Predict the structure.
Amino acid sequence: FADRIDDADRKKILKLEARIAVAGDGDAAAAVTVLEEIVALDPLDGDALMLLGQHYNRASDPDRALFYYERAQGIEAFEADARVRQAQILVGQAKFKEAVPLLRRAQEIKPRLISIAGSMCLFPFPVAAVREIADSVGAWLMYDAAHMSGLIAGGEFQQPLVEGAHLMTSSTYKSFGGPPSGMILTNSPDLAERLE
């Protein structure tokens, strides 16, 4: 049966397998194997490149993360996000001079949404500074608080919505101990109404 599946359908099946691997038992190694197979089938699959970059960033392998983000930069729909994520890694390495041109280019692209933070943050992100960039291009700023939401709720980590993020996303089970689900938070009544 596998020899009768064309590349487009194979890629869809692989993406589904990757999502199941991540959502089900959290088998990151299986998800990475599947994502790398997707990239082998289609080197310009921006979703797979970005997910691999995020995985390697979480796995404390910034060089591999940067490699995948650099590849994703060449895909128009992913360029801004890839540059911002690259800049985040460089800021974490105190390579500010290298991060600034990436952020400037992301600013020129005029993205509709800028996503910062991510699964694991050891240090607060410059939310107010990134909000200025977002405002200058008319973009929303979203803070991914998947693993830090318990610390944020307890007042032990930065307060992204107070510092300027339009949106904050979180899971309900990683630091809150609830059932697997997610939530989107905002301080803006207008934006909350649009999300419903």
Q: What stands out?
A: The two ends are 42 Å apart (CA to CA). The CA atoms of residues 18 and 31 lie 4 Å apart. DSSP finds ten helices and four strands in the chain. The longest helix spans residues 7-23.
